[in-house]
User: Fold this.
Amino acid sequence: MELIENLKWRYATKKFDTTKKVSYDDLENLKEAIQLSVSSYGLQLYKVLIIENSAIREKLKPVSWNQSQITDASHLFVFCNYKDVSSEAIDDFIKQTAVTRNLDLNRLNGYGDFIKSKLAEKSKEEKTSWLKSQTYLALGNLLNACAELRIDACPMEGFESDAYNKILGLDEQGLNAAVIAPIGYRHKEDQTIDAKKVRKPFDLLFQEI
Assistant:
């Protein structure tokens, strides 16, 4: 199983080679892998910023605990969840489903109403947590796709979300920076490049019932 070998190869890269860039074709493959990610009800209530601009990343570095990955990596992926779920977003999803699958829209309206009713049951705090969690599903696909393409990545929560929102103009779009991932290629002097993975053994991690 190639996936297992690729996952053994990957690690959270701390030092990137600034001279190497991810190609256009590889970026398109990564975008498609994210697009194909699972999400609750299929809504994909998030947006992913792919930042190559060095000036913007220099602004983000101080509010990312001054971690060098922000500026040294080839690109910076910022996964942003929507701050709320609008009825319009659900209606748009239902319409897109009808068009994509060539179905009668009236047959799907009941499903749209069901989604709205289930989300209405959540408290504001529950909804915020649920929306943020969706971005991690997409992040997982990015990390797996990067491993398959032998592109390094470093998922990070060490940043100031509110500052990212301000710098990137996310508040005006109803978005919130949830999790980030610089991608590129490991530097040969990265101190963690040869570190062995530390993972729980099967007997502690799994319980078969």
About this structure: The chain has a mean pLDDT of 97. The longest strand covers residues 175-184.
